[in-house]
Every structure is written in structure tokens, then in C-alpha cells.
Specification:
about 120 residues, mainly beta, about 60% strand, single chain, 7-stranded mixed sheet, 4-stranded antiparallel sheet, 11 strands
Length: about 120
Amino acid sequence: QVQLVESGGGLVQAGGSLTLSCAASGRIFRINAMGWYRQAPGKQRQLVATITSGGSTNYADDVKGRFTISRDNAKNTMYLQMNSLKPEDTAVYYCNANVMYDSGNRYNYWGQGTQVTVSS
């Protein structure tokens, strides 16, 4: 099994910055794409950003120019640098990883989430 642990969430004023980390551990052959998702109370979980093993990135329109996703493949760790935070960014942020095993099977895993609260 693979465990994903997010860290770096917290309370920040509007306009501030936070950096989230997601560390993967356990039985891993290869991590393919990884991504950050977020879910606000009463809202559906939505995509924030994704990154492939080769470093290709994709962002939701409302975070483009403000958030940067990155990964360190040697450490099995992904990051989300969040700048110019807005109150509407308040949500629980979840890490997702698509893991391929040496058998060729692939599975998606989710972290428990980390709370980001942006005050006005």
C-alpha cells in the first residue's frame, strides 16, 4: 500500500503565501502523474493542478499565475506553492498519486488532506 501525507496547510491572510507538500511512502515501483485537489465545505472536490513524472503541468484556470506545482521524483514528494491567496482558496487540499507497480497494475491513492484557510 502507498501512503500520501500532506503538510504545510494553515491560516494565512489574503495575499499571503503557503507551500504544501505531499510525501509518498510504502510499496512504490513508479509514481506516474500526481495532482492537487481541493474541497471547500458544501462544494465538490475540484482539480487544482497536476504534474506528470516528466514534469508536464496543468492548472485550473482560477489558480493559473498564482500556484506552482512541482515534484522531486527522487524523494517521491510533490509541492504546491501558493501565492496571492484569496479567501475563495479556502479548502481542504488533497494529494493524489497514480502509482504503477512492477506487475503493471496502476492505482490511484489519496492523502487525508490539509486545511488551508485564507482570511480576508
